[in-house]
Specification:
Layout (H helix, E strand, L loop, with lengths): L1 H16 L9 E5 L8 H16 L2 E5 L7 H12 L5 E4 L8 H9 L3 E5 L15 E3 L2 H12 L9 E7 L5 H20 L5 E7 L4 H14 L5 E4 L4 H10 L8 E5 L3 H8 L5 E4 L2 H18 L6 E2 L3 E3 L4 H9 L4
Parallel strand pairs: 1-2, 1-3, 3-4, 4-5, 5-11, 6-7, 6-8, 8-9, 9-10
Antiparallel strand pairs: 10-12
Helix pairs in contact: 2-10, 5-6, 7-8, 8-9, 9-11
Length: about 325
Amino acid sequence: MKRLMTAGVLAASLLGTTTIANAQGMNIVFTHHSSASNPFWQAVKKGFDDACAKIEANCQMVFTQTEGAIDQQAANMMASLARSPDALLTTIVDNNAFDQIIQQARDNGTIVIATNVDDTEGADGNARQAFIGQGFVPAGYALGKKMSEFFPEDGPIKAVIGISAPGQNWSEQRGAGVIKYLEEFKEANPDREVTIERLDTGTDGAVVAERVGAYLNANPDTTVYFDTGLWHAYVAQVLADRGVEPGSVLMGGFDIVAEVLQQMEAGYIQVQVDQQPYMQGFIPVMQAYLAKNFGLSPSDVDTGQGLVLQEDVEGLWELAKQGVR
């Protein structure tokens, strides 16, 4: 947090004392793995657009047509780099797919900052200069640990972890963090039956609702469902439609969007992890500005693993309406 505050103060100071002409004409492109229908990415785009406006840069965010389509993201990245932008912001959801593209961009002098998702090996696995985003394994671990406070005091625990995007870094690492905590919980409670299962669920709300809904039908003894994204909100709606009481199946996941807040208020979602998407759009633009105009090296920023509970929802609604949460 100290690093983040320092960077923010420095950026504000520079913008206040340096003529804006230094930034005019700066071209920044942001390619990522999600489609425009994903509500989470609207908050990232809001931060991106606001930062670009502050430095008067020419900016473009490029969505994929299909949610999570790595091939489409790679094609978008290559097309964008053909225009020789000053900076490329991108998500690295696969450890190999973008290595050559990003290395070529760096060789051509383009500033490259990973945001939202990084190579699992960090700077050792990819030529990007910094990562702005959440630490996924710690975030998953924190979710599992907080959710355990809602577990029944005795009896078996049957936990299901929905891997939204099998093989993609963000989903696999979050799931790994949840499983790590649950395994520790199991070891610490040898007198209780603790079952941990993984379920490939997808990134389409209707598909997730169908798959998880079918699983819960077949396994009515399920205690808790963890989603590695925001799609458990659609599972919550299935439970509500079936007349299942809130809290009968505990649920938690990631990201603060309207659908999640509604289901938290209704009591179907107990714990949510916020990775502060506005920051993930805003900060890399400022770091690219500092790198190009002042030679300052981009640096990693952890955008957090803030835990949101039902009592926090009321205060988040106004920010959600503004598109920043």
